[in-house]
């Protein structure tokens, strides 16, 4: 079942978005002088610096995600939250693709009368397949960039304009909404699992990683065209880690933007299992390291990044 309707937003909505965009927040990304990662990922790379957010006055006129950027939301049993998430997203996007991954709790019914493009899996195929399916649909519609967010209410749609501005200012970056600055609201097990995964993925990709498990992202369309993956249901949460490593191989570095995160009380239990899924991610990274001779320059950068993250936590929180 596929349906899609483009919607036009009012001037009032445009003005509201502009006001949200003028938020006192900073964008963390690689230096503008950097040409990209060498093919062997062994070149020197400066530590990411702080970049100011860019406010575009034309935001409400063709710069709000319509035509150029398409939003993809994977959904599996999200009936408690999906409608509110999509309604918030539609304020910023003309095209929203929801991929229902075989839900059996009425998720699809919650989307009734909303102008979205709906793609349905007859059975649960996993988050990776849902994301990839939605991304391919976005590419077929001519997207310049593909934005992804979860359907469980964890990501705030009000942060979408800032993600889009970061992507427009740095079109050669994989922009990721970073949540770990706000440790107080993140379940302890998730926080520790994420930090552990960050170390391994930073090692394999040869760059500083602030939040490897966030699904709140903007992917350049060209990156998705270059990537190839073998997807399976058990690898659902491995995909978002592996694509960071694959992106670095294709010279698309990560850039991180601090975002809000919430865990709605009415949301379903998380599909992410810290021990099991991190073990799968670690196996994937270990294999990639083995075939590259353990990539010692990447290990050095990962260790340095971890030390700097620990020593500068208080300063970083002040910036957020």
What's the short story on this structure?
The chain has 320 residues and is of the alpha/beta class.
CATH class: Alpha Beta
Per DSSP, what share of the residues sits in E-state strands of 2 or more residues?
5-15%
Remind me, CATH topology? Spore Coat Polysaccharide Biosynthesis Protein SpsA, Chain A
Largest sheet: 7 strands, mixed
- Backbone shape: globular
CATH superfamily caption: Spore Coat Polysaccharide Biosynthesis Protein SpsA, Chain A
Shape-level CATH architecture: Alpha-Beta Complex
Please, what is the oligomeric state? single chain
How many domain units? 1
How widely separated are the two ends? 42 Å
Helix content: 25-40%
Strand sequence of the main sheet, in spatial order? 5-4-3-6-8-7-9
Instruction: Provide the succession of SSEs.
Output: HEEEHEEHEHEHEHHEHHH
Strand tally: 9
Rg (CA only):
19 Å
How would you state the average pLDDT, rounded? 75
Can you count the helices? 10
Show unreliable segments: 1-65, 311-320
Query: What structural class should be given to the helix and strand makeup?
Result: alpha/beta
